[in-house]
Amino acid sequence: MSVRTLRVGDRALLVELAGGAETEAFHAELLRRRAAGALPGVREIVPAARTVLLDGVDEPGRLAAELPRWESGPLHARVEAVVEVPVRYDGPDLTEVAALWGVSVEEAVRVHTATEFRVAFCGFAPGFGYLTGLDERYEVPRRATPRTAVPAGSVALAGPYTGVYPRSSPGGWQLIGTTDVVLWDTGREPAALLAPGTRVRFTAVGGPTGEVGRVPVGVPTAEVGYAAEGGR
Amino acid sequence: MTDRAVAVVRAGALTTVQDLGRAGYAHLGVPRSGALDPGAVRLLNRLVGSAEEAAVLETTVDGCALRPRCAVTVAVGGAPCPVRVDGRPAAWGTAVRVLAGSLLEVGAAVRGLRSYVAFGGGLAVDPVLGSRSTDLLSGLGPAPLAEGAVLPLGADTAARGSVDAPPWPGPPDELVLRVRLGPRDDWFTAAALRAFATRAYRVSPASNRIGLRLEGPALERARPGELASEGMVLGAVQVPPDGRPVVFLADHPTTGGYPVVAVVREADLGAAAQAVPGTPVRFIPVR
Q: Which of B145, B230, B269, B287 is best to mutate for the A interface (most A CBs within 10 A)?
């Protein structure tokens, strides 16, 4: 397994992997070891695009020396069910996305609903998952000008990722649809419907006449916008 | 009457409920949050006989005013400020008994930025994901204080007396932040790293609970292109495209796409909570 380990301050390690699939496999291996009690003294495991951050590490030097010797584990076949997310494909950018893909709107919806996604990592906001699975020919750029308010439940695309906004927030992703599923519920375990590793499939419901946006949930906006989603 | 609660008479510029934070959910995009000056919180909670992790109030610049509905032991610390009970001066930095219906006034900070108010029994607002902290980035936890709000208090166990003369470090005239370079110091030129380690920065007025924004020499990148989003830690010194470093504080995002040139030692961040805009800042690379 090709890994590069970087020290992050006094208590954390950033493990760099070759690509997205390797990162997911390494993350799964970390979770497996933690579940088996073989990863003591690590408080947070944060997967991202091509790295996994280990934070709150008791002995970072020792763990950093140990990591390259780990056997490369295959990405374990997951046994849990696929989370289905019903979507009204009525987003304001759907036509533009279809044009970028060079297909009809109907075909764009078919591609999106035919894809099995997996949550590679979370970030930007609680419960916002970065879903991979779309073929790379369907990558789209972020919008040149971000929207100041994207409604909660918006299904969106940027780069290689699909995401669903858990609550109303500013955002620059291309909006292709809307869902009513509850993405984030602190009374649920885990609170995020789309936690890292979760398999996801989108299904089309209703017609294009459904309501596009809903009333934003009543949460204060961030003091400043450090958290531009993606940042890739 | 067993109305263990405190009413908000004056909310102040930004007063939030804080404890020691919300650990363990960074992988779901949840910031750690918690008091920016956790040392002050631990000390004040000991003074009023509460558990160290009990929830307190964190004020910003101009304090707040409260009317407890029951007799309660309180202690005000962090940034030095005048404290009054029913108009009479009361002690700062030690436990004070406030009677039911009295007005507790936490004045504007004389030095520093953030004062803390601890209560016997702690604030008993509902915890979210194991913490009562207000997280301003993602909107978790109780809303910032508003006039007329009523906050419940926990049962006062009154196991007081563990501290009598606590040492209070004053707010800094100069903020000295020890850092470990990396993980992305190789994204910057040698000249930029030299400037980072030797030049003085100043705290920008745009700083908040998410980050300490700095004015000073822009750090020039050695390589173009973009970094893929990666996990961020408390104290990370992130450098956005304008080259001005931002030190991530408690409400920082859990992932980010700008390179982190260095990470500040956690022990040095409490002082950052009290650094007023314009305070000189020096980064001292260690190890």
A: B230
ipTM of the complex, rounded to two decimals: 0.93
pLDDT at A3: 87
Do A7 and B260 count as a contact with CB atoms less than 8 A apart? no
Largest CA-CA distance found in chain A, in angstroms, rounded: 58
CATH topology of domain A4-69: Gyrase A; domain 2 (3.30.1360)
Q: Could you tell me if A160 lies within 8 Å of chain B, comparing CB atoms?
A: no
Give the predicted TM-score (pTM) of the model.
0.89
Candidates 3.20.20.70, 2.40.100.10, 3.40.50.300, 2.60.200.40; correct CATH number of A83-204?
A: 2.40.100.10
Give me the pLDDT at residue A75, please: 55
Tell me the C-alpha distance between A85 and B25, whole Å: 23
Give the structural domain span for B117: 5-152
Q: What is the spatial distance between Cα B136 and Cα B23, in angstroms, rounded to a whole number?
A: 16
pLDDT (tens digit per residue) in B123-145:
999 999 999 999 998 889 999 99
- The tally of domains found in chain B comes to 2
Enter the tokens of residue A34.
Answer: 């933690």
Same-domain pairing of B143 and B211: no
- Nearest Cβ partner of A232 from B139, B226, B233? B226
Where exactly does CATH 2.40.100.10 map onto chain A?
83-204
Sign of CA dihedral A131, A134, A135, A136: negative
